[in-house]
């Protein structure tokens, strides 16, 4: 459990650590805003496009070694990104994105295999750790950069990667023997479902995750500017709104497992998550003065949504091998769509000169999550 949570701290933090020093990086490297944006958008694209490759790697190496490979990739990418020059920064960013993709696919599979009886609770704690890692690096990167420069500030987080790798190795060293052979054996055994990717629940969860991830990355990218435009907030207050959106994810991450225990089917949980998402968008449209409440509800929704979808993957997988394949497909398809979220919303805001149309697009993504997620939750569980 400790190894999983330490691993999770490194699955979003290294990406968002760039955000508060992005303008400094752009000035130092002599690049424009669009190029600098690649340092945050490239990893999300990797999450989508590289998920099949991540599933293949985990099948060949085994879960235990696969996670160590992912941590090694995050470590190498973090150091490379801090070296001199734009090519190194981009190469390091891609390396981090590819390595985190392996982790994204691996964690739900590890939880479903080794902690199945507590899967909902562990998935909630995992989702919370993703947000804690993000907030930790968002909060501390700037103070470190003020003392040492942005390169050292970003590279300093490699220490957390090393700690996670040591704990993971210690926790799994007795399991690593034969994991690759076991994975190959699992892949050679036919799943009880004739063709796993034809199951409606797999496609339903893929579409639902696409809606969830699109809304999350679009709101994360543009919420500070929206609050400045619509409410006249200064940068500090707008940043506080973004912090509320990220921090309150902990409520959803820990609350959804409790609700799944009370409402095992999952339909009411998905519906409640979508209502909280809708409160964010509708609230900002019709009553923007209540933005702290809407940001809090949206934050709980984004933390609860990803927890609910991962719980449904674990619940509906027939085997460890199918869990890995479903995790790769759901996240691969979802993150490809999510990578377009900030660009689509930003383009619509520029074209219309306001936030109504962009927010309506986010509303459409939430509607997709609601319909696909409800249908997936209604699918009978495998016996």
TrEMBL record:
> Known SUPFAM superfamilies for this protein?
MFS general substrate transporter
Lineage, top-rank taxon, reads Bacteria
Do the record's keywords include Nuclease? Answer: no
> Any transmembrane segments, and where?
33-59, 66-83, 89-111, 123-146, 152-169, 201-223, 243-260, 269-287, 293-314, 326-345, 357-377
Stored InterPro entries: MFS, MFS_Cyanate_Porter, MFS_trans_sf
Gene3D superfamilies recorded: MFS general substrate transporter like domains (1.20.1250.20)
Q: Which Pfam families does this entry report, sorted A to Z?
A: MFS_1
* Keyword line: Membrane, Transmembrane, Transmembrane helix
Instruction: Please name the GO terms that the record assigns under molecular function.
Output: transmembrane transporter activity
Keyword Nuclease set for record: no
PANTHER family, per this entry?
2-NITROIMIDAZOLE TRANSPORTER, PTHR23523
Name of this chain's protein: Cyanate transporter
Which organism is the protein's source?
A: Pseudonocardia asaccharolytica DSM 44247 = NBRC 16224
């Amino acid at each position: 459990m400790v190894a999983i949570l330490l691993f999770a701290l490194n699955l979003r933090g290294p990406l968002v650590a760039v955000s508060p020093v992005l303008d400094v990086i752009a000035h130092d490297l002599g690049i424009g805003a669009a190029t600098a944006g690649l340092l945050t958008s490239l990893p999300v694209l990797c999450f989508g496009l590289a998920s099949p490759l991540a599933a293949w790697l985990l099948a060949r190496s085994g879960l235990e070694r696969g996670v160590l490979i992912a941590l090694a990739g995050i470590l190498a990418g973090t150091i490379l990104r801090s070296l001199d020059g734009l090519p190194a920064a981009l190469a390091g960013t891609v390396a981090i994105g590819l390595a985190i993709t392996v982790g994204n696919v691996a964690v739900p599979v590890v939880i479903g295999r080794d902690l199945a009886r507590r899967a909902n609770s562990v998935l909630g704690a995992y989702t919370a750790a993703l947000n804690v890692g993000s907030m930790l690096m968002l909060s501390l990167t700037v103070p470190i950069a003020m003392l040492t420069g942005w390169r050292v500030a970003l590279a300093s987080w490699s220490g957390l990667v090393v700690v996670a790798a040591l704990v993971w190795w210690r926790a799994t060293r007795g399991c690593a023997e034969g994991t690759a052979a076991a994975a190959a054996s699992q892949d050679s055994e036919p799943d009880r479902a004739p063709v796993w990717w034809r199951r409606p629940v797999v496609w339903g969860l893929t579409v639902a995750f696409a809606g969830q991830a699109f809304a999350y990355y679009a709101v994360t990218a543009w919420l500070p500017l929206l609050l400045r435009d619509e409410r006249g907030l200064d940068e500090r207050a707008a940043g506080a709104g973004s912090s509320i959106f990220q921090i309150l994810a902990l409520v959803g991450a820990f609350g959804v497992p409790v609700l799944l225990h009370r409402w095992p089917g999952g339909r009411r949980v998905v519906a409640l998550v979508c209502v909280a998402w809708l409160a964010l968008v509708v609230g900002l449209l019709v009553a923007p003065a209540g933005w702290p409440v809407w940001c809090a509800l949206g934050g709980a929704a984004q933390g609860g949504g990803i927890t609910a979808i991962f719980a449904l993957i674990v619940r509906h997988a027939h085997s460890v091998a199918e869990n890995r394949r479903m995790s790769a497909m759901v996240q691969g398809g979802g993150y490809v769509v999510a990578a377009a979220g900030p660009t689509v919303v930003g383009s619509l805001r520029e074209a219309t000169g306001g936030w109504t149309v962009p927010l309506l697009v986010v509303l459409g993504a939430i509607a997709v999550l609601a319909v696909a997620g409800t249908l997936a939750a209604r699918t009978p569980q495998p016996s």
